[in-house]
Amino acid sequence: MNKVILMGRLTRDPEVRYSNGADGNQMAIARYTLAVDRRGKTQEGQQNADFIRCVCFGKTGEFTEKYFHQGTKIVVEGRIQTGSYTDKNGNQVYTTEVVVENQEFAESKSSSNANAQAQPQAQNNQSAPQPVGDGFMTIPEGVEDEGLPFNFS
Fold first, then answer.
1. Which of 45, 62, 114, 125 lies 20 to 30 Å from 137, alpha-carbon distance?
2. Do residues 6 and 98 touch, judged by C-beta distance below 8 A?
């Protein structure tokens, strides 16, 4: 059985593209990264998090485009999918992502708005990633491609 359930916050606004489906109709393909807290903290007292790439299709992708944004706390249910490709340098790159089958909000709109307002203030105070709301961290631009030990491109 391949089933995963995650709860976390979007690290940035979803990227949504449209592709022609098999029936000729446009189909939404939404991608986002979910910051999911780990249990326990580092020796410095910081919260550990995993950054998990997610993709959803069709109506789920359209819903994502319309309602989800950076900092939104959600619960996703889906399956893990792996793949690989050869990059422009001839290196084999392995990918892992969650194909979302169901998703829903994990907090009220007022809580989400309060966290979104707190986030810009934290970013202006320091350049290092800061906890948002209940401890999730915002990833600065470019970190996903360069600073993480894996690549989902």
1. 62
2. yes
First-to-last alpha carbon distance for the chain, in angstroms, is 26
13, two tokens:
């606004």
* Cβ neighbours of 32 (radius 10 Å): 25
Residue indicated by tokens 């998090």: 49
User: pLDDT digits over 5-26, tens only?
Assistant: 999 999 999 999 999 877 778 9
Convert the pLDDT of each residue in 129-141 to its tens digit.
Answer: 444 455 555 555 5
Q: Which CATH number fits domain 4-146: 2.40.50.140, 3.40.50.261, 3.40.50.720, 1.10.10.10?
A: 2.40.50.140
The secondary structure of 18-56, three-state, reads EEECCCCCEEEEEEEEEEEEEEEECCCCCEEEEEEEEEE
CB-CB neighbours of 9 under 10 Å: 27
